[in-house]
From TrEMBL:
SMART domains: Elp3. Residues 1-22 have a biased composition (Low complexity). GO terms for molecular function: 4 iron, 4 sulfur cluster binding; metal ion binding. The keyword Zinc-finger does not apply. This is 7,8-didemethyl-8-hydroxy-5-deazariboflavin synthase subunit CofH. Residues 427-447 have a biased composition (Basic and acidic residues). It comes from Halorubrum laminariae. Residues 1-34, 427-478 are annotated as: Disordered.
């Protein structure tokens, strides 16, 4: 991968690479030494699955093309049963707020339309951009508002702004390079219209009032140590001291380098991603794990990705949940350049959740995402092996900019109505799932009670799907 040695390989950002992509994503059809029937029998017996088993289940058999509906139902049923035996009938969700600090990023991932080229943020640039950078004070104000609403967690993932450094010492190291922009993807904050502060300052600003700070993906941790020989553990130690509580395992995409070379050549490689996650756990943090699928990869890549996560969990035990992120294609370079003609089908989404539940026998929680799938299909995924329905999030930028259409937040009333409609028990959780509160559906209206300032007052009024109501002020970007 390129980012370690050549951080500016994609400088200027978005999609110039895509034109060169045609044909590069042509991976061979998967084959295995396993049969679908044997793989299914192993899954039903709780025998640990191999990568070949997972491939057979994800493909509903590799001996023929397309998904077989009857075989798919058998896989979903096995996964739903496994979910019930492992975690029961509760469906959890967290009262959280998203706070993306900046959209400025030069990494150039071809599946991403969240980022804006960082040069457009420079003081002397007259380029227009739809994005934002927040100061630490602005991040803090968003967290304070959310705390008042009863929120438990702030989830903060951001672009890799060239002026972001871990702390003052990191700024000095980066600035000392002869050509910091091309050698270490660094420009001083004075070059930009808005200074995002340092990573430590942002985390300190967000870590107020007892909120749980969920932030610093492996890619962001790489950015917070670029140009130094600091270990990931040392970087996460410093961030934990600033108030970081857990780290999101995004930037995983597909953890197979031949896929990363196509969709995110500027990102860290699989080994670095794993090293970052291990560093976070060594620093005492919980982590989540994700897979962004439904673009150029094959089912073999999906299965191999699950193996990387399961091995990581065998070694660390630090992963609280697995979050499947179905690729939203509409506004992305991959789609606009014709490299892909859409995302995953609903059947593929269901099989991915199911096989994750069956393969990841050491990760308790599998998440369904209403942001990516919408409410109705999100609920269906809760009957395919998932047991968590993410969080209220209050505002959303990544999926919205990619063309997602399922809105930006959900209220507690929305959650209780949806979860009881499928006959399950709604449960408010902490980020780490260790604190849980079963919600009595009869006792409405419903609001958060686990947040440091929560008193059961409804988070937001009314239905949330259309993005109406006063939520804009809660997630305000500048
Ligand atoms: C936008 S990045 C922000 C954090 C940081 N820049 C990073 O890459 O880790 C967070 C994650 O959003 C997900 N994402 C980005 N674009 C997406 C899309 N079009 N569809 C689904 N997920 C997407 C990817 O998994 C990515 O790692
Ligand atoms: N699935 C998505 C999530 N999931 C993360 C959760 O909201 C929460 O932060 C995590 O479970 C830790 O408690 N977040 C998004 O912004 N978008 C998603 O699609
Ligand atoms: N914010 C990410 C998703 C995410 C964040 C944190 C997690 O722990 C998991 C997933 C997205 O919208 O794609
Ligand atoms: S996924 Fe993250 S690193 Fe990649 S372009 Fe988007 S914001 Fe930047």
């Amino acid at each position: 991968m390129t980012s370690a040695g050549d951080p500016d390989a994609n400088a200027g950002g978005d999609d110039h690479g895509a034109a060169a992509l045609d044909g590069e994503a042509d991976f061979a059809d998967p084959t295995t030494n396993q049969s679908f029937e044997n793989a299914l029998a192993k899954a039903r017996d709780r025998t640990r699955l191999t990568v070949d088993d997972a491939v057979e289940l994800l493909a509903t058999g590799t001996e023929r093309d397309g998904i077989d509906p009857a075989r798919k139902e058998a896989v979903l049923e096995a996964a739903d049963r496994r979910r019930r035996e492992t975690v029961g009938d509760e469906v959890t969700f967290v009262a959280n707020v998203n706070n993306n600090v900046t959209t400025a990023c030069n990494t150039g991932c071809l599946f991403c339309n969240f980022k804006d080229s960082a040069h457009a943020f420079e003081t002397d640039s007259d380029a227009d951009h739809p994005g934002f950078t927040k100061t630490p004070a602005e991040s803090q104000a968003i967290v304070e508002d959310a705390l008042d609403m009863g929120v438990y967690e702030v989830c903060s993932v951001s672009g890799l702004h060239p002026a972001l450094a871990l702390n003052a010492e990191h700024h000095e190291i980066l600035a000392a390079h002869d050509n910091p922009a091309s050698e270490v993807n660094y420009k001083p904050p004075s070059r930009y219209a808005t200074d995002p502060g340092t990573y430590v300052e942002q985390i300190e600003a967000m870590s107020v009032g007892g909120i749980h700070v969920h932030s610093m993906t492996p890619e962001e941790a790489y950015h917070a140590r670029r140009g130094t020989n600091w270990t990931y553990e040392a970087v996460y130690d410093r961030l934990a001291a600033a108030g970081l509580d857990s780290a999101p395992g995004t930037a995983a995409e597909i953890l197979v380098d031949e896929v990363r070379d196509v969709i995110c050549p500027g990102k860290i490689g699989t080994d670095d991603w794993v090293a970052a996650m291990e560093g976070a756990v060594a620093a005492g943090l919980d982590v989540t794990s994700t897979m962004m699928y439904g673009h150029v990869e094959t089912v073999e890549h999906r299965a191999e990705h699950l193996r990387v996560i399961r091995d990581l969990q065998d070694r660390t035990g630090g992963i609280t949940e697995f979050v499947p992120l179905s690729f939203i294609h509409e506004n992305t370079p991959l789609y606009r350049h014709g490299v892909v003609d859409g995302g995953a089908s609903r059947a593929e989404d269901e099989l991915l959740v199911a096989v994750a539940r069956l393969f990841l026998d050491n990760v308790d929680h599998v998440q369904a995402s209403w942001v990516k799938s919408g409410d109705a299909h999100g609920l269906k995924l809760l009957n395919c092996g998932a047991d968590d329905f993410m969080g209220t999030i209050l505002s959303e930028e990544i999926t919205k900019r990619a063309g997602g259409e399922y809105g930006e937040y959900r209220s507690f009333d929305d959650y209780v109505e949806m979860i009881t409609a499928i006959g399950r028990t709604p449960v408010e959780r902490s980020t780490d799932y260790r604190t849980r509160r079963r919600i009595d559906p009869e006792d409405d209206p419903h609001g958060p009670e686990l947040g440091p300032r929560a008193d059961g007052t409804p988070l937001l009024a009314g239905s949330s799907t259309g993005g109406e109501s006063g939520v804009e002020s809660a997630g305000a970007d500048n």
